[in-house]
Amino acid sequence: MSEAPFSRRLLTVTGMEELGAYRVLRVVDAGTPEPDPGQFAMLAAAERWGGGEDERPYLPRAFSIARRDGDESHFLLEDVGPGTRRLCELRSGEQVWALGPLGRGFAPPTEGRRPILAGGGAGIAPLAILQDALGAKASALLGFRDRDRAAGASLLRDARVATDDGSVGHRGPLTDLLAADLERDAHALVYACGPAPMLEAVRAMCASLAVPAQLALEAPMACGFGACFGCAVARRGGGYLRVCVEGPVIDADELDHVDPHAGAPA
Questions:
Q1: Based on the domain organization, do 122 and 195 belong to the same domain?
Q2: What is the pTM of this model?
Q3: Fewer beta carbons under 10 A from the terminal one: N or C of the chain?
Q4: Is the backbone peptide bond immediately before 248 cis, with ω within 30 degrees of 0?
Q5: What is the structure's pLDDT at 175?
C-alpha cells in the first residue's frame, strides 16, 4: 500500500475539464508516492476555503484518485455543496492543499477471475485508475442518473452504460447490466463504487452467486487517518471498520450490508 507523506502539500492546478455534470481537476503532484487504485486524497482549496460571515474553514474533502498521468494527479468532482463548488471553481495556476494517497486500495484478481468494474455516478472515479492498471481485460459497466452525468463515462474505456431515464444506453439500473454479465460467466471479481443503494445491490447479488466483490466505500471524513471515527461502518459479526483506514476498499464478505451513508453521490 502506498503511504502518504507525513504532511499535506501545496499543489498547483494545471486544468479543469468539463464532463457533463462533472469536472476533472488536474494538479501537478510530482514526488508523491504512486497511488494504488482505490486510494484517495484529502483536498482543500488554498484560498477562499470557508463559509459564513466569518469564513469559517471547511473540512478537507476526500476524493478518490481517478488517474495518474506523468506528474499529474486527476480527481473527479461534482458540485454537491459549498466545498465541492469551491473546488469546481478552481482554474489553472490556483493551488490546493492535498494529503494522500491514503487508505487501502483494490487487490488484483486471482484464480483467473475476470475483473468487472461496476461504477455509479461520481463513484466511477477510482475505477478509471484501476482500469489503467488492469488493462484491456477489465470490462466496465457504469450507471448514471441522466445524459448529463453519463458524459462521465468517457473517463473509462469501452464502458457499457445504463441510465435511470434511458437517455443513454440501457434504461434501468446498473445492476441489470451486471446481472446479465454474471449470468454469462460468473467466474469474475467485481470491483464496485457508487451510491450506497447500488453498492448494497451489488453486494447482495454477488453474495447470492458466490462471486467475490471489492467495494470502494465513501463516507464523511474529517481526518483521513482513522482518528475521528466519523467514517465508521458496521462490520459483519460486530464492530466497525473505518473507511479511511480499513477501507475505502473493503471485501464485500466483510459486510452484512452497506450502510446508507457509505456511498458516492448518485
A1: yes
A2: 0.95
A3: N
A4: yes
A5: 97
Residue 265 lies in a domain: no
Contacts with 113 (C-beta within 8 Å, 6 or more apart), sequence order: 187, 188, 189, 212
At 78-106, the pLDDT tens digits run: 999 999 999 999 999 999 999 999 999 99
The pairing of strands 170-171 and 95-102 is unpaired
CA distances from 38 to 19, 147, 153, 252 (A): 21, 26, 18, 15
3-state secondary structure of 133: helix
Rounded CA-CA distance 41/216 in Å is 14
Give the distance from CA 65 to its chain's centroid: 8
Under 8 Å CB-to-CB from 174, ≥6 apart: which residues? 118, 119, 120, 141, 142, 143, 162, 194, 198
Domain identity same for 119 and 234: yes
Each residue of 30-42: pLDDT tens digit? 988 899 999 999 9
- Pick from 11, 1, 89: which is nearest to 43 by CA? 11
Domain end residue (candidates: 102, 136, 153): 102
Evaluate the omega torsion of the peptide bond into residue 101 and state whether it is cis, within 30 degrees of 0: yes
Determine the structural domain holding residue 233 and report its residue range. Answer: 114-254
